[in-house]
Each structure stands twice: as C-alpha cells, then as structure tokens.
Automatic annotation (TrEMBL), chains A, B:
E.C. numbers: 2.1.1.193
MF annotations from Gene Ontology: rRNA (uridine-N3-)-methyltransferase activity
Swiss-Prot/TrEMBL keywords: Cytoplasm, Methyltransferase, rRNA processing, S-adenosyl-L-methionine, Transferase
Pfam families per UniProt: Methyltrans_RNA (PF04452), PUA_4 (PF20260)
Name of this chain's protein: Ribosomal RNA small subunit methyltransferase E
Length: 243, 243
C-alpha cells in the first residue's frame, strides 16, 4: 500500500504524467528507498489525492503516472488565520496547526507589539505543505507575506467577520452560537497583546466579534489552536462530519 | 513592578521568609540581574501569588520575604489529561499546553501503539512548572509516571467520565452539551491511534464518551489542545469568566 504522501504542484488526472523535481526524487529514492513500480500518494491542492506509480526515477528527477483518485478534493471552510509572528519555533507551530485544523489562508501581521520585522514566507509555506502531507489533507493554505495589521484592516472586506481572541473579553464576549455565518477570519495577538490604539480600533470595527479563551493567559500558539477549535466546532466543518 | 514569576515549593504568607535554592538564586541574580530590595512574584501551587522582596541573595542561595498576596489561589476544574507520549518535542508541548489550558493532572500512558518505554517525569514536571510561571497560573498540574493504559483503566473510578477523542467517531459522537458534569479526564491516543483491542475495550466502558475532532486527521498534540478547548468551553471554567 502506498504510504508516502507528497504535495506536487502539477495537474493530476488518470494517466497523467507527473514530473519529479530533484529534491522529490532524492526523497523518494534516497530517503524512502522507492524505485520504479512503487506507488505513492500525491495531491496538488486542487485535484484531490491520487495514487501514482513511479515510472522512472533518477538523481536529478523522475516521472510518476497518476493511476486513480484515492480521495476527493476537500477544501476547508472560508476561514483565515491572522496572527502576529512570535519566536521561530512557535511561529512554525502556528502555521502547522492552522494547516492541520483547516484554515483556508494564513496571514502573518505586524502589530505594535510584534518584534519581528520580517518572516521567511517560503519556510512557513513549506511548513503548511508538510502539515498537509502528514495529516492527509488535500488542501494547502497559502501563507501571506508579512503586512501591518493597520494595512490589513484598511483593505478589509466588511462582509468577512473577524473573530478577535481578546484577553480582556472575559464576561463581555458573545456566545459562539450567536455568531453569523459567512466568511471569517481569526485574529491572534502577539505575546503582550495589542496596544491601546489597536484595541480601540478593533473595538470600533463593525465586523469584529470578540471571544474569550478562558481565565488563564494563553500563549499565542495555544490561543491560535483554541480559537480555531471553537470556530470549527461552532461554525466550521467539525459539525458536518461527512468524512 | 515585579515582572519575574517563580514557582517555589514553600509556604507563602505575609512576612513569611522563603529560602532560595542555588539555581533560583543564580536565575534571579545572574540572569535577571536582581538584587536585595528587588521584588518578584512567587507562587507555590496552593497559596495564590505573592509579591516577595529579595532580602539577601548569594551564589548558593538567598532569602525572600513575602509582602502581600497579588492573586488568589485558582485551581483548575477537575479535569485530567491522559495521553500517549510521542516524540520528545511534542510530548513537552502537550504537557506545556495542558498546564496552560487548565488540566488538574497529567497522566502519560503507554498504549499498544506507543513507542516510548519510558519518560523523564522530572523533565515533564519542570515543563508544567515553567508553563504556569509564564502564563500567570497559580496551580501546577502534577505529571504522573508512565503507566499502561490497561492499568489506568483497571483502577478507574467510574464516577469520573472519560472523553475519548476518537478518530472514528465522526457522525456518531454525542454533542458536548449532552455530556454530564462532575470529574472528567480526556484521553488522547498516539499517532496511529488505538489498537482494535483498545478500541473495543474503550467502547464497552460505561464512563467513556466519544467526541470527534473534525474531518481532518490531527496530530496528537493538536488533538490535545483541541479537546481541552472543547471541554473547557462546554464544561470547564471558560464559561464562568469570573477572572
């Protein structure tokens, strides 16, 4: 049975030839010890998952042939995760968890209390790909470049609701069951929270809904998983259970 | 303002002298550059949080004096987290997150598909302490020694309900709002899930309730945070909001 799962950005259909790049060929042949005739699972983020046969494999590349679709394409609900990058390991973790938990788009933002001036978008995107490979997903959320929170809010489409995990929301937040449907984004602040100016701005925006994540202070990475869980359970695809 | 927060296993009361061990004295003096007259926050897991003044500090130890209580003792709900240890970094992460999210006790268990034969209980306990120090908690969940799941279930008090995050529960699990009150534990399996024998045993136990964590496969550490979130929001202290 095919156990290896790879994301390959190439069209997938029955009989379709799929070229391997050098690092993919090295992984399959050098690391996983696979050769011509062996099978792997491949997804491209849009055509579902396909069982593919290795036709030819060399050091610098190779060719797969797509045999049959093993899982349909399944896209996550229209939910973005917006977060302020923190220390490297925890930022990687947030991206991995967002991909696992079914975020459709991941947007790192710079806030008044964010330390990082830049991110490695390509490295974070690779983490999202790896999470999808490991977790049986057929979708990979795109990871955006670092933008300022102010800029993101300026260009905001007001039909998209924004769930703000507000540390000061205890006792004031609306229950999740009262939240509207439609497209959503979750906003997670950096360690240290948001500045007073940011808090005022967020509180004044009509599409912002605050939630509380309990009486304990959560680290940003924990808060991201907790908020994604509450949203998926209340408004997302954890209720559909059609898998 | 006192910014450093330390767990010190010693009684705390107004005027109480609190001895520092060598590593604590080194941290305060050598790392944080604090000296006599400076203040820190101290908790011991049972007497709340206290502002303490450094009376004397040397290489091999020191003395604090407790001045006033800055936060009451706040114990988490009666919720245990039972999990199968996985790779080191993810095991550390599960313990950290359980402490942050308000688990009262953390129990690593060996299952049929668990790879690890042993854990470093002292290292995991230190992670729980650090999480409480960082997150403003006044309680530190004890981390148990590694036991077999079979043994844990044999000695189970049936008045404690067990929430089983079952990958195969989609469509069959009861809604969280139907779950009973009282003491609880959450059970998270290893990567690869539970064996058929374990699954049969769990399904037959009257105190076991299954929940689904959505249509995607979650890693064990993600599943732990997600299950803790759902429980805290439905049955725990995230609703009380009395902080």
């Amino acid at each position: 049975m095919a156990k290896v799962r790879l994301f390959i950005d190439h069209p997938l259909a029955a009989g379709q030839a799929v070229p391997l790049e050098a690092d993919q060929a090295h992984y399959l042949s050098g690391v996983m010890r696979l050769g011509a005739g062996d099978e792997i699972l491949v997804f491209n983020g849009r055509d579902g998952e396909w069982r593919c046969r290795i036709v030819d494999i060399r050091k610098r590349g190779g060719i797969l042939e797509a045999a049959e679709q093993t899982a349909p394409q399944r896209d996550p609900p229209d939910l973005w995760l917006i977060f302020a990058p923190i220390k490297k390991a925890r930022t990687d973790f947030i991206v991995e968890k967002a991909a696992e938990m079914g975020a459709a788009r991941i947007l790192p933002v710079q806030t008044d209390f964010t330390n990082s001036e830049r991110i490695r978008q390509d490295r974070l995107q690779a983490h999202a790909v790896e999470a999808a490979e490991q977790c049986g997903g057929t979708f990979v959320p795109p990871v955006g470049d670092l933008l300022s929170l102010a800029k993101v809010l300026e260009g905001w489409d007001p039909s998209r609701s924004l769930l703000w995990a507000d540390e000061a929301a205890a006792g004031e937040a609306a229950p999740l069951s009262d939240l509207p449907g439609g497209p959503w984004a979750i906003l997670i602040g950096p360690e240290g929270g948001f500045s007073d100016a940011e808090r005022q701005r967020l509180r004044a925006l009509p599409f912002v809904h605050r939630i509380s994540l309990g009486p304990r202070i959560l680290r940003a990475d924990t808060a991201a998983v907790a908020a994604l869980t509450l949203w998926q359970a209340a408004l997302g695809d954890w209720q559909r259970q059609d898998s």
